Amino acid sequence: MAAVHVGVVKETAAGERRVALTPDAVPRVGAAGVEVLVESGAGASAWFPDEDYAQAGATVVDADTVYSRADVLLCVNQPPRVRDGQAVIGLLAPLLNPTGMAELATRNITAISLDGLPRTLTRAQGMDALTSQTNIAGYKAVLLAADTFERFFPLLITAAGTSKPAAVLVLGAGVAGLQAIGTARRLGAVVSAYDVRPQSKGEVESLGGRFVELKSVEAGAGEGGYARALSPDEQAAQAAELAEHIARHDVVITTAQVPGRRPPLMVTADTVKSMRAGSVIVDMAASDLGGNVEISQPGATIVTNNGVTVIGAGNLPAQMPTSASNAYARNISALLLHLLADGELHIDLDDEIQRGVVITHGGSVVQPATAKLLEASP
After folding, report:
1. Residue 275 has what DSSP assignment?
2. What span, in angstroms and rounded, lies between the C-alpha atoms of 331 and 187?
3. What is the rounded distance in angstroms from the CA atom of residue 177 to the CA atom of residue 183?
4. Which domain holds residue 151?
5. For the segment 57-91, what is each residue's pLDDT rounded down to a tens digit?
């Protein structure tokens, strides 16, 4: 029986420096009877040269060979081309592009997206790319804020006088928010945090942060470990009550997202105007759908008339490509090994993990959440 050919492609999205599989992960995949093909230069931006892949047992080839020979393509973002009948595994964002998934289905492409992983399953934790990547993003967001903030983060007592610590507010205490809290505390800042889920209070306090409690919004725990989507009225009430807290802080980092939906608006333009000159906001939720900050723009930095710097964070994990790729490679290889049986890709939609991650198979959109979006679209 011929081995399954797994192809690792070079990412083409603007600013993307990660690679789906690192040299360290090649032997783990190869042990399952898989032949790994790596597009030449695929890991270069993350500092993994072709020679390292070859030494690990992969075959380094040109792009055309990868796309034509691979049975399964491994990627971070959806690749620019996929062959009919091929399988592709990556962060495909199906809830943001359901019609694109439907197009893949018409070509009998099996699309498998780590976005859909059931994150509350213990046996799926090693495959959880969203957690690994947002963890990196939360760390990087604080470093970006500290670099932009033109004063010290920690309390410093020197012969030249005392510098008080920066006051940092983190909005959203999920994986990214908790990492941001811990990182800001390690840098010496005084940290407060807010989350619509009251059970987050203990996690925030365990990292040395102070939990901000609002009276205007009821508890918002949702499914799968995420916060629920708030109604427009709840968002408005939340933003209004948060405004006075935000105005007292030097740095605000926003992390609140709901999968497949517009991020909740938490910081209005008027609130930004109330902040002190020199303050910094990092909106980790900034995207084409909008962000947590009314005036943020994805991938752009804005300095307002009152001297507040607003950073639409963009793709933060890509700014730490080596660490991000190492973590992602462990996630995607764990999922790939879960999908292999007797040296072949085995799709079983009765499996709870596969039911979440397999978006298209057998010519149909099979993931319930994506299929529901297609049914609702005109």
Report:
1. S
2. 29
3. 10
4. 136-319
5. 999 999 999 999 999 999 999 999 999 999 999 99
